[in-house]
Amino acid sequence: MTKEEIETVIIRYTFIVDAIKNNKDQAVFYVGNRKFSVKITDPVFTVCSIIRDVYSSSKDDWFKFMIDGILSDKTDVSLIIHLPWQRNAYYKRKDIFFNTVLLCCAARNIFTYEEILAGVA
After folding, report:
1. Torsion angle, CA of 103/95/70/58, rounded to 10 degrees?
2. Tens digit of pLDDT for each residue in 74-120?
3. Rounded Cα distance, 30 and 32, in Å
4. Within 13 Å of residue 46, how many CA atoms lie on the same side as its CB?
């Protein structure tokens, strides 16, 4: 999996979890008028479990609120309005969440060394 695919799993988490609960082989969702799909594979299962682990290991309630909002497909603006952080603090914490998930994916060997280097360019 690439970084973009992992970020797609994070952003479209609710659709993927619904597809998993309904025993479907892919999650289908619409962004605007465009139809997208994510194939449910073992790495996707692993990323979903990593997301749950990151959520449960967080001790900050506001950070958990932010993760809930991101996973439930809320926009950044609607989250910033409800959080006690400034805009740049929100984006910093969002980056921390995404990077934590990526590091956990690297620890579980979801992507290879070559894929990491290809994402640098």
Report:
1. 60
2. 888 999 999 998 999 999 999 999 989 988 988 898 877 777 777 65
3. 6
4. 16
